[in-house]
Amino acid sequence: MDKKKLNILYISPNFYYTCGRSYYFNLLLKYFRRFGHNVVFITNGGDSLERLKENNIKYYILPDLDKKKPSIYLKNIKKISNIIVDNGIQIVHSNHRYTEKIALSAIKRTKKKNVLSVITVLSILKRRYYIEYKSDILVAVSNAVKDNLEKIFKVQDSKIKVIPNFAETEELDNSLDLSMYKYMNVWQDSTTKQLKILSAGRFHEEKNFETILKALKIIKTTNENSQIQNINLLLIGEGPEQKKYEKLIDELNINVKILSPQKSLGGFIRNSDVCILPSIIEPFPNFMLQCGLFKKPFIGSNVDGIKELIINEKNGLLFEAGNESELAEKIILFTKNIKLREKCGENLHKEIINKYTEKTVIPKIEKLYYEYLK
């Protein structure tokens, strides 16, 4: 099949460093442009717009893109339909239910019959509005997401294509000034025997970082007189639960530092000993994939997309979601068993490199575009 240059419009609200959707679309924009396609992006803003500038991505800011007031909704449809026509767009790819609805209405307004609509589904949702997931193609980032689409939203199997979330191999070459650790008094003395734990993501109840905090308190309380004392957690992110976490950290008197969202997690992951994600809902997390990219031992809750990849004591450790006692046991296991840590990190790395990077995933999405346009 001839690989003609494609004109692709991506639409994603809230382009933030802590947002998994933003990370995903940033990589699509970057690599499809690198592959020679014309890519255009629409968002309402966010703290990671510099990513677009670095990769010379053409983008439009619609400040009210996420607003649902009827007059604003109609105005956005008109603006997006004009962008589609002006840029000769062949594919409109969204990643959010509301922006999908706007995108489909904008395509209809153009009266162009050959525009392909795509949505990548990066969430596991329970509430159905009966207006969502009407695109020509639904890209599910895991089998858990596919099951959710079929069971809750009654989407036909033939419309869903499972193409996994992915990490970027170029992160392995990125460097980070680690002097900030001394400033923050975290991981400051590499000669001190300690376990450096990293966790990152939106401070939202679904991420459930509270479980890590309680697990660290259990470890501190039950191991006061043992060798398992110096465990430090660096928690990177922001969101509505932050004040709750800060209060709990003070109450539990545990060694935790919170850092605001970062442009790259690579340096932090590289310099950690163990990475943890305690979510209660998780489609197929970027953080898990990034940790594997850097060969880091990973501990995750036994939910959704995490358990699709992580096999307990083979390429990581699993614990029951919300069970801080079991998580504490898993942390202690990795603290004491260095060989198990190394084995899990190596095995997870092999899987990520072979199946879950831009080198394997981007070509699958590109092939999907061509097949459906044909």
Structural overview:
- This protein is an alpha/beta fold.
- It folds into two domains: 7-166 and 357-373, Glycogen Phosphorylase B (Rossmann fold, 3-Layer(aba) Sandwich), CATH 3.40.50; 170-355, Glycogen Phosphorylase B (Rossmann fold, 3-Layer(aba) Sandwich), CATH 3.40.50.2000.
- Helices cover 42% and strands 16% of the residues.
- The chain has 14 helices and 13 strands.
- A seven-stranded parallel beta sheet has the order 3-2-1-4-5-6-7, with helices on both faces.
- Helix 7 (210-222) links the parallel strand 8 and strand 9.
- Helix 3 (70-86) crosses helix 4, helix 7 (210-222) packs parallel to helix 8 and helix 10 (286-293) packs across helix 13.
- It is elongated, with a radius of gyration of 22 Å.
- The model has no long low-confidence stretch (mean pLDDT 92).
Short description:
The chain is of the alpha/beta class and 374 residues long. 42% of the residues lie in helices and 16% in strands. It has two domains: 7-166 and 357-373, Glycogen Phosphorylase B (Rossmann fold, 3-Layer(aba) Sandwich), CATH 3.40.50.2000; 170-355, 3-Layer(aba) Sandwich (Rossmann fold).
